Amino acid sequence: MKLETKSQIEKTASKDQAGYVLLDAYLNVDDKTLVTSNGRILAVVPCEIEDGDTSGSVSVEAIKASRKMFKRQEKLSVKANSKLVVTDGVSSTTLEREDKGNYPNYKQVVPNFDKQVTYKVSLNAALLLDLAQSLGDKIVNLELTVDKDGPDKGQCLSAIKVTSSANGVDGAYGVIMPVRMS
Questions:
Q1: pLDDT in tens, 22-56
Q2: Contact 44, 110 (CB under 8 A)
Q3: Disulfide check for 174: which of 38, 98, 131, 167 has CB 3.0–4.6 Å away?
Q4: Is the pTM of this model over 0.85?
Q5: What residue ranges define each of the domains in the chain, with the CATH number in brackets?
């Protein structure tokens, strides 16, 4: 399996031992994807399947070892068959490929984007963090608003209301105005 080095998918894998299966990534050979989840967020990243790769768990340790070995490359590589092998042709690391049971059916929680109205929203994480801190919380709710009576007749996002999740200042809110592209 080859994965772009800019993807840091291992960061979304669970660190909670109670979610034993989620401690590792899941390689789906049929979909050509690598999946991680911590139970609250889910990351699905495309990857190149190499000869001999099979679906199943790929340890975070193997991904980290590959990242170290391929740090100056565009893609990192982990051979994922009965074992996990990270090699650059000069040196190699071999890790056991544990069978941790069935990975949850992550496709059940992913909506069918083709059958829904979807608004793509790009947010500056630093600005969102500033806004969250202004509201006195680390966790915020985003409410996407569409103005059905506006000039776009409900076809464009008109505002994003940001409210504190629970621990912030009561009644405080922020608004992010989306940038309209023409």
A1: 999 999 999 999 999 988 888 999 999 999 999 99
A2: yes
A3: 131
A4: no
A5: 2-108 (3.10.150.10), 116-176 (no CATH)
